[in-house]
Write a structure and sequence with these properties.
single chain, mainly alpha, 4-stranded mixed β-sheet, globular, mRNA binding, coiled coil, Luc7-rel
């Protein structure tokens, strides 16, 4: 019997519990099913985003995540903001991202201590993405890409290509700026004379001797961009709070009433969404310990 149970478990893992198609109640039909990854519905699950990277968080505990949850995202987007329980979805994502950033921040602290022990100097972090000049060029890149997409949709192919070429030129300009900033930032020096700084977003150690391709690989890499996205999302949630607005008292897992299907978004959907995120942001700010780090993190070898 134990051997048969083991075989069933292996088949369940490989083919799913409903592999024979005879468990109608087991099929996930709506985004409200508890087995659907709520952070993925909101656009960012750290288990999915950092899969197979140095910051891999393992398999998502939700049964439907990534591609399996994509088909429910349209349902969620039609519903979001129209119900009072939307804040539960946001809070679940917030808790996941907080835990992830805590891991990243502990990593950068650990590696900075290791570097300090080895060379007798604690390297400073340098935020190459947040420098005013870099932000200005990044905004121009985004604008050029959006204009190129709009031109392409309107059939203006030559104009679209010109704008994409401009975006590529601006990316090179951004890389040159980042290299210049890297060369003038406070630095640590290792035994072989290599000058290093820690990236404040993901914590990777950068060198002014790195080639352009190496720096581009870092800044455009999936892990660096992923950590930047997580930090930006956290800032969005915490930066939208209004005085006097608090989070609901309940701290339990989200409980959603059964519905025949997702209700259509009403005229006040955006207002509901804004109020829900305000409640979450205010609650998160109140719950955060004093002096909690908001900076970057580091995992060795991260690019």
């Amino acid at each position: 019997m134990q051997r048969l149970d083991h075989v069933r478990a292996v088949l369940d893992d490989l083919m799913g519990h409903n592999r024979d198609g005879d468990m109608a109640d087991y099929e996930i039909r709506t985004f409200e099913d508890r087995r659907v990854c709520k952070p993925h519905l909101l656009g960012l699950c750290v288990h999915d985003r950092f899969f197979n990277t140095t910051l891999d968080q393992g398999a998502c505990p939700s049964e439907a995540c990534g591609e399996a949850a994509d088909k429910f995202r349209k349902q969620y987007l039609a519903w979001r903001g129209s119900g009072p329980d939307r804040w539960e979805y946001v809070r679940e994502q917030l808790a996941m991202m907080d835990a992830f950033i805590a891991i990243v921040d502990r990593g950068i602290e650990r590696n900075q201590r290791r570097t300090e022990t080895a060379q007798g100097y604690r390297p400073e972090t340098v935020d190459l993405d947040a420098h005013p000049e870099v932000l200005e060029v990044a905004a121009r890149i985004d604008s050029a890409v959006k204009e190129a997409e709009a031109a392409g949709e309107e059939g203006r192919v030559d104009e679209s290509q010109r704008l994409m070429d401009e975006a590529e030129r601006l990316k090179t300009e951004k890389l040159v700026l980042q290299r210049r900033i890297l060369g003038t930032a406070p630095r640590g020096q290792v035994g072989n004379g290599h000058l290093l700084q820690a990236c404040s977003a993901c914590g990777a150690m950068l060198s002014e001797r790195d080639s352009d391709d190496r720096l581009r690989e870092h800044f455009e890499g999936r892990m660096h961009r992923g950590v930047v996205d997580v930090r930006e999302r956290l800032r969005e949630l915490r930066g939208g709070s209004r005085p006097g607005v608090g989070a609901p008292a309940s701290r339990g897992p989200p409980v959603h009433p059964a519905r025949a299907g997702p209700p259509a978004a009403g005229r006040g959907a955006d207002a509901h969404a804004a109020r829900d995120e305000d409640r979450v942001a205010a609650g998160a700010a109140a719950a955060a310990p004093a002096g909690a780090p908001q900076g970057g993190g580091y995992q060795r070898g991260a690019r």
